[in-house]
Design a protein that fits this description.
The chain is an alpha/beta fold. It contains 15 helices and 16 strands. This is Queuine tRNA-ribosyltransferase.
Length: 381
């Protein structure tokens, strides 16, 4: 049996800071810019794996913290790894559990060694260190593994941002040592430093000296305005190696993604498209539609008869409104699929535009479509 190929990144075109390329893994190619649907607990909510693939997704994200609690990393490993467990035979990135250091602050105690969590499920105690995080992600058989870091919310005092950044750097060193030599997987470091340019630059320099297969920007979309996020990205991406993928963690909405692509980001993930779908909101070429709104209850038109998404052409707005208002499971399934498809259409359009040297025009036309708003009702509808 041949040895698995190492993970490799190839940059194929640029326009300004925007980039397109691919990440090759032994489980398949990841086209960049890439949006990763979030499969927190080994499932993308309300979606079959093949439906997720049909949207155009090349890679999924799984969550270390949640999977270590249920069903447990050792159990997943004994059942063949996460790919077999959830029947997704393409690449998977697992986060490290670092975000839960922030989001579950009332249930954790943090030291230099790591983080002790009290499970939100049953109250049991679990320790997550950089070494254990790498072990869990390896047991899950992840293709892209993240270092353990500390993510803090913004705004924050500079002293606190510096403390968390320096701790994350030390944990990055320990994560790299624990990762060892695994050419069939990639290990990403995470840039921290809040909204402070000097701290971000120090973090990036420290991570470069350790050496990672890819570099993530963490600690954004945690309470700061969009213009602050964009400023931080504009300042930090030039500090990251151009021959490694760049991943903006936990972002975001379509306009966030367009702006981050323009600033040199290659990878994204967010629960927002599926969560928005479960709450009756869909993303389209003319902006966000709230299908709970009564204006849709007698509307026989499809969502968008020009969309490449069959569900946008197949079902009437009145029917989707009915499903949402009656909280039928099918409504969450259809709307989640529509949103994930739109996100994939967005990054696919960006890839093509960058390759053809027209990304700036593509971004402007896309935003103009959102600004124009929904199609007006015609007489008789």
């Amino acid at each position: 049996m041949p040895e698995p190929l190492p993970v490799a990144f190839t940059l194929s075109a640029t326009e300004g800071q925007a980039r397109t390329g691919r990440i090759d893994t032994h489980r398949g190619e990841i086209r960049t810019p890439a949006f990763m649907p979030v499969g927190t607990a080994a499932t993308v909510k309300a979606m079959y794996p093949e439906q997720v693939r049909e949207t155009g997704a090349d890679i999924l994200l799984g969550n270390t913290y949640h999977l270590m609690l249920r069903p447990g990393a050792e159990r997943v490993a004994s059942l063949g790894g996460l790919h077999d467990f959830m029947d997704w035979q393409r690449p998977i990135l697992t986060d490290s559990g670092g975000f839960q250091v922030m989001s579950l602050a009332k249930l954790r105690r943090m030291t230099e060694r790591g983080v002790t969590f009290r499970s939100h499920v049953d109250g049991s105690s679990h320790e997550l260190t950089p070494e254990r995080s790498i072990e869990i992600q390896t047991l899950l058989d992840s293709d892209i593994i993240m270092q353990l870091d500390e993510c803090i919310s913004l705004p924050a005092e500079r002293k606190e941002m510096e403390r968390a950044m320096e701790l994350s750097l030390r944990w990055g060193e320990r994560s790299k040592a624990a990762f060892g030599d695994q050419p069939q997987r990639a290990l990403f470091g995470i840039v921290q430093g809040g909204d402070d340019p000097e701290l971000r630059a120090r973090s990036a320099a420290g991570l470069r000296s350790i050496g990672f297969d890819g570099y993530a920007v963490g600690g954004l979309a945690v309470g700061e305005p969009q213009e602050v996020m964009f400023r931080v990205l504009s300042e930090i991406t030039p500090e990251l190696p151009s021959d490694r993928p760049r991943y903006l963690m936990g972002v975001g909405k379509p306009d966030d993604i367009l702006g981050a692509i323009a600033r040199g980001i290659d990878m994204f993930d967010c629960v927002h498209p599926t969560r928005a779908g479960r709450h009756g909101h869909i993303y389209t070429r003319f902006g966000v539609l709230n299908l709970k709104n009564a204006r849709h209850k007698d509307d026989p038109r499809p969502v968008d008869e020009t969309s490449p998404n069959r569900n946008c052409r197949r079902f009437s707005r009145a029917y989707l409104h009915h499903l949402v208002r009656t909280e039928e499971i099918l409504g969450a399934m259809i709307l989640s699929q529509i949103n994930l498809s739109y996100y994939q259409e967005l990054v696919d359009g960006a890839r093509q535009a960058i390759a053809e040297g027209r990304f700036e025009d593509f971004a402007a036309a896309t935003r103009a479509g959102w600004s124009a708003g929904d199609l007006p009702l015609t007489e008789g509808n």
